[in-house]
UniProtKB/TrEMBL annotation:
An MF annotation (GO) of this entry: tRNA (adenine(22)-N1)-methyltransferase activity
Native source species: Desulforamulus reducens (strain ATCC BAA-1160 / DSM 100696 / MI-1)
Listed Pfam families: Methyltransf_18
Name of the protein: SAM-dependent methyltransferase
Listed Gene3D superfamilies: Vaccinia Virus protein VP39 (3.40.50.150)
Superkingdom of this protein's organism: Bacteria
Length: 234
């Protein structure tokens, strides 16, 4: 078995038994190798836009003797897939904007998948907004802390979900609903991030910077309110 990082283990737990998974931007190929070794997936597709990562994936796949069950594909995003070929699409370790662009570029493939498992490194709010605006619902969300970094995992399935307040999209509606154990850490980090942005903006006397500062202050206020509600509910 592979000694998988906590982050990749977290992604793996959302892959339903018996599904064919496509790992887009697979790099080392650890996730599909693990899922096939475990028997969760009868088959998998490991894809990457760059040759080097795909060669690394090939070497790991050969090492674990799963080459008959994993297809390696070189190419951009979902363009390597035929519609319906993968039940579950995993895109992890890239910016939220890149993930959104990948989904947007191949609607015929994206729409045939039953589940996306996404782990953006930034711009989570924009990715959530994109999903909800395009007929996806957030089935689940996870937070995990590894080496001091907080990662967000979004699990999306086809469905309708109302786009709530912008701040909820920023935090993660399912994380709030399930009062995730790391939610207070997540909110605190968001507050600290916006406080740093605010300090920068307040050095400026330009009208546009001052308007932006007001918006950031409002956001910090909303985050503090949610943080206080969370503390009082414990
Ligand atoms: C930081 S690695 C993440 C690897 C793995 N998914 C993980 O989470 O550990 C990002 C990988 O995505 C690949 N990549 C970036 N843009 C891509 C795209 N548009 N299509 C496919 N792969 C892409 C890169 O070559 C790189 O191997």
């Amino acid at each position: 078995m592979i000694n998988l990082s906590e982050r990749l283990k977290c992604l793996a737990q959302f892959v339903p038994n018996g599904s064919v998974v496509a790992d887009i931007g697979t790099d080392h190929g650890y996730l599909p190798t693990h899922l096939v070794l475990l028997g969760t997936c009868p088959r998998a597709i490991a894809a990457d836009i760059n040759k080097g990562p795909l060669e690394a994936a090939q070497s790991n796949i050969l090492q674990y003797n799963v080459q008959d069950k994993i297809d390696l594909r070189l190419g951009n995003g979902l363009q390597v897939l035929r519609p319906g070929e993968a039940d579950v699409i995993v895109i992890a370790g890239m910016g939220g904007g890149t993930i959104r662009d990948i989904l947007e570029a191949s609607p015929e493939v994206a729409l045939q998948a039953t589940r996306f498992i996404l782990q953006p490194m930034a711009d989570e709010k924009e990715l959530r907004a994109y999903l909800l605006q395009h007929g996806w619902t957030l089935r689940d969300e996870e937070l995990l802390l590894e080496d001091g970094r907080l990662y967000q995992v979004l699990v999306a399935e086809r469905g309708q979900e109302e786009i709530g307040e912008s701040i909820l999209l920023e935090i993660g509606p399912r994380l709030i609903e399930k009062k995730h154990l790391l939610l207070s850490v997540h909110i605190r980090r968001l507050i600290e991030k916006y406080q740093r942005v605010l300090m920068g903006l307040q050095k400026s006397t330009q009208e546009v910077a001052l308007r932006k500062a007001e918006h950031i202050k409002e956001k910090i206020g909303q985050l503090r309110k949610i943080e206080a509600e969370l503390l009082s509910s414990h």
